[in-house]
Amino acid sequence: MNLRMSTAPHIKSSDTTSSLMRNVIIALIPCTMASIYFFGLNAIILILVSIASAILSEVIFEKLSHKKVTINDGSAFLTGLLLALNLPSSAPWWIALLGSAFAIIIVKQLFGGLGGNFINPALGARGMLVVSWASIMTNFTTPTGFATADAVTSATPLATNAADYTSLLFGNIPGTMGETSKLMILLGLAFLLITRTIKWRIPVVTLASTALFSFIFGSDPLYAVLAGGIMFGAVFMATDYVTSPMTATGQYIYSVGIGLLVVIIRVFGNYPEGVTFAIILMNVITGLIDKYCRERVYGHSKGEKHE
Q1: What's the pTM?
Q2: Which of 196, 254, 258, 275 has the fewest CB atoms within 10 Å of its CB?
Q3: In this structure, is residue 302 part of a structural domain?
């Protein structure tokens, strides 16, 4: 019998950065199609501008920094798409342009590129846009498809508690372009779980925590999960490999923290939605969570210091 001697790691996987990014992009196709169906030409423009801005920003920055151009891994494309789906359809094109450039250059590249960012780039950009242009980022329109000339400004169901469960599920409601159709988000989640691109812990525990704390604070838990951006955030934003904890215990803590912060911001804050800032805050303490949720290294006793 022949034995092969080699150094660690000994786990083999066919997954690559490109394949994982591709899977997330595929999972976002239902939400993207729904956004175009409900919001029409404006959605197409924002999606194209956001993706183009992200890719160009990455190429230009890496060229000027004399780094290897990495757009082939798909991460810039994914960041641009995620940001676009986090925008209201009424946003002007320059919001998508500026937001994607900020996500790539400031949040991602200045911290070392892919794997070095400490918060999700698309969410970091959305947070910046919300703080800087709140009126634009909260100017939601009632879905009208390609009849964009008749679009009517409206508050999100989260702010009014006016939508029925069917509308919340299928997406014929005001909101950011990717968050409205919960059915499309669930299709994306199913694909990510089937392909083992993500594990169930973060999305499921985040949504369950949001429902539980909403109930504790006197809100309808089902409505709290279906309204707003918590489902989109839990599936596509909170699960980012770089900015979420590595251990199972850490992921439980992280997810419960997101759910709690979302409800606190919704109930006690001036802004009706808290998903963006809840995830960003938990991104920031992910390193601390990983530090105190380390698994025991084989050959070392629990708590023993090791390199």
Answers
A1: 0.88
A2: 196
A3: no
